Amino acid sequence: MLKYRLAMSAVLIPMLLAVLWLDQWVGSAHGLRGLVLLVLVMVCMLGASGELAAMIRSKGALVPTPVVAVSGQLGLVYVGMMAVLLGAGWPEQATSGTLGLAGLLTVVTLVFFGSLVVHCRGRRTDGAILAGAGAVFACVYLGLLPGFWLLVRQDHSAWIVAGAILVTKSCDIGAYTAGRLFGKRKLIPWLSPGKTWEGLFGGLLFSGGLSVGLVAWANTAAEGSTGWVGGGSLAPLWLAAVAGVVLGLVGQLGDLTASLMKRDAAVKDSGTAIPGFGGVLDLVDSALLTGPVAYWLLALAAAMR
Asked: pLDDT for 221-242, tens place per residue?
């Protein structure tokens, strides 16, 4: 399993960096920051929608895969396009504030009532509440949570997004490796039998160390310039260490959240699309939960500059 994870990581990490390089170029050349990233996230969440739909249906909620897919995409496209348009200089009142919040609530409302309409075809009434709840959950989990990465992109370069994602995933890799090598004491055996305390601490050390290294590099690159981090130091190194540990820890909570859902659905992995990892959700579960945290950590770092 470890060799497959390492092999896939060697493929996926360069792919992520290439996409973010393209996003950085498009943003610099055309002012559409986050557009390429939005397309990447949409594709990933579309791949995850079938996996999530299967887990929702395993609990008796009659939610078709297209409903889950559309629910997630609607939430993601709304947040992503509002972020891209605002970043491109559209009138702020059209993309934020009361009007922006009203648009978001409208999307959630459409998802809820749309799922009920689909469910009631053929005059079926049983399971309507679960169907509506499942669609809204898909909108939040596959739409709004990853949408935070688009918000991060509007205030920071694509390389900052890459760094935050890599720090999050580094904790996954570090925890898995340390757990395999040194793990003895189970972390939460009733939820995720493979996780150990040794693995958790190893992962947090890895994510904290990588965060310090990346921020030290960024600070050096940005001194006296308006370079890829926007000019000036990105953050003090002590804050980088704290942020790395926090992102790693929240990422593990995201992984445990997915484990909770998989346990409830009685499946080991969300799918089989990615060798060594399982399904798409198995790959992105930690990054889904760290999006909001990364946004606020970077806002804190900006306030301290």
From this structure: 765 444 444 445 667 899 999 9
